[in-house]
């Protein structure tokens, strides 16, 4: 029984010296993040496929139970829209190979212009992907959430591929107007979609966006605490990523979410202890 929690990144300016030691060389930052959380969203792979040497460094900094949910490159999902993308896909799979089992799922985030009429393209794409990985799909067109026929169509394609549907829950964020610069910026960029809470596989993945105010973030995730506890009791192994507009306290919040679920499922193992930000003293 495992619940993995994490953030949208493993390094952030506001964490330095407060949550994670500072200064740290680039090749140490992920190791220190992994003391706080045991999963991370691989958003950087959307913008550029990393070198194999970079990925080898990620593997060295994390234990075998750490989870990467790595986004497929935008050239595949957004520019070529899942068609004629064999060359960039080969480069991507070769680059991430050193992670081995740490690659929990490969995340296919599709643009808002990807509609239910495009689902056959997704079905063909999923059938051609290497079988040694798990896959998770995030869609953003409202019809997938609001039209039962479109929902069933996508679910059937994902079920055939044993792939998960990744919800990005922004309902708490959009429940009241923004009150900070970070919230105002996120207000213009984040998707505003209906809530989805169903899991398709034994390893559901949830992305949750709260507010910069901790109390509002915690209040908004209460449904996910109960749902996640229920998944664990069913024998599932979920991964939950906690976002806020400024992400200043995201690792703390991710750990708090884990603690709240653990209070309901006492058999759940505790997270690792963070690496101290400074030298230990006797007094």
UniProtKB/TrEMBL annotation:
Xref: Pfam families: DUF72
Domain of life: Bacteria
Gene3D superfamilies to which the protein is assigned, alphabetical: Protein of unknown function UPF0759 (3.20.20.410)
The protein's name: DUF72 domain-containing protein
